[in-house]
Amino acid sequence: MDLLKSEKARRTKGKILKAAEELLMRRDISKVSVNDIVQKADVAKGTFYLYFESKEDLAWSIVQEGAFSFDSEIEKMINEPLTKENVAYLISSIIQFCLKNKELLMIIHHVKFWEFINKKQADYIEEKYIGLFKAWLDQNVAEGAVEIPDTAFYARFIFISIHEILERMILGKLEYDLRQAEKHVIEIVYKILGW
After folding, report:
1. CA distances (Å), 162 to each of 43, 62, 155, 178, in order?
2. How does pLDDT run across 17-53, given as a tens digit for each residue?
3. pTM of the predicted model, to two decimals?
4. What separation in angstroms does the CA of 146 have from each of 98, 120, 135, 161?
């Protein structure tokens, strides 16, 4: 019985998230109300508040569902050597993730959306991924595989470079197809690493 309840709860929460995402593809977050979301999800307003404390909590859940689903890919790489092949694999994985989740990434990268979730939460995401990149670089420096004088700087620079390029493509500000960009992004990271 508990399994059925949790499955039903999972589906209900999923319906609310899906309804919110659909609405956020058409309107910015400040123009989407909780009433709009519950109406689209076909659930009661009280049901919304069983799963989310507020619209901000819902927004943060959208970020977690999307961005954090990529964590395992990056965490796997930390234990691998820093080679051209592994860097290419990681960038290819990032681009595949972006292609698969383009609509979600468009929602997350909308200016009003980022203004809505607080800066502390937004910074947390950035620092988490920079920290993972830094751990990968640190491990490889410690093993003597590469010589990088300032892994914190390199990790931040690589993260921001990849993020900015892909963000501009996703938002349509760069006339480049994500699939075509893969080779160029890999080459940029190779150059950053001095290869």
Report:
1. 39, 22, 11, 12
2. 999 988 988 887 888 999 999 999 999 999 999 999 9
3. 0.74
4. 29, 33, 13, 20
Residue 59 lies in a domain: no
How far apart, in Å, are the Cα atoms of 50 and each of 9, 34, 117, 122, 126?
10, 13, 20, 24, 29
Tens digit of pLDDT for each residue in 115-174?
676 667 778 888 988 999 999 999 999 998 889 999 999 999 999 988 888 877 777 766
- Same-domain status, 136 and 162: yes
The single-letter code of the amino acid at 179 is: R
Residue 14 lies in a domain: yes
